[in-house]
Design a protein that fits this description.
Tetrahydropterin Synthase, Chain A, 31% strand, 134 residues, five-stranded mixed β-sheet, alpha+beta, elongated
């Protein structure tokens, strides 16, 4: 049985996208009037795992597991008032990326990026790192 990877050390990126709707407030110096009132957004999130697929299965990760974990984290955010979520901090795109990272990385150790986008306002944040190196 040949256990050598057909990928010859090259890396794959596997992504899963999900959406959630949530409300929040935000205290900031500019555009303060609308931000300080409770308001909501539709967020588009994408998580990416990076690595070399397993030689035996041909998979980087089982998509069933990835979808299960994404659903678990989505449940923490969807139709929530983000100001009340423990350990999130101010509901910025940056903090949302980091929140998702912290909640997924223990079960998806090859997680390498989290993207949050609000298409209606044209805002997007990408948090990237190398798996195994914080």
């Amino acid at each position: 049985m040949n256990t050598a990877s057909p990928f010859d050390g090259t890396r794959c990126e596997l992504s899963q996208r999900f959406f959630f709707d949530a409300a929040h407030t935000l205290h900031r110096a500019l555009e303060t009037e609308g931000s300080r009132r409770i308001h909501g957004h539709t967020y588009e999130a994408e998580i990416t795992i990076t690595g070399v697929p397993d030689a035996a299965t041909g998979m980087l990760a089982d998509l069933g597991l990835v979808r299960q974990e994404v659903a678990r984290v989505r449940e923490l955010l969807d139709h929530r008032f983000l100001d009340e979520i423990p350990d999130l901090g101010p509901a910025t795109l940056e903090n949302l990326c980091n929140f998702i990272r912290r909640h997924l990385q223990p079960t998806l150790p090859l997680l390498s990026a989290v993207t949050i986008e609000r298409r209606a306002s044209g805002d997007k944040c990408v948090l990237r790192w190398r798996p195994g190196r914080d």
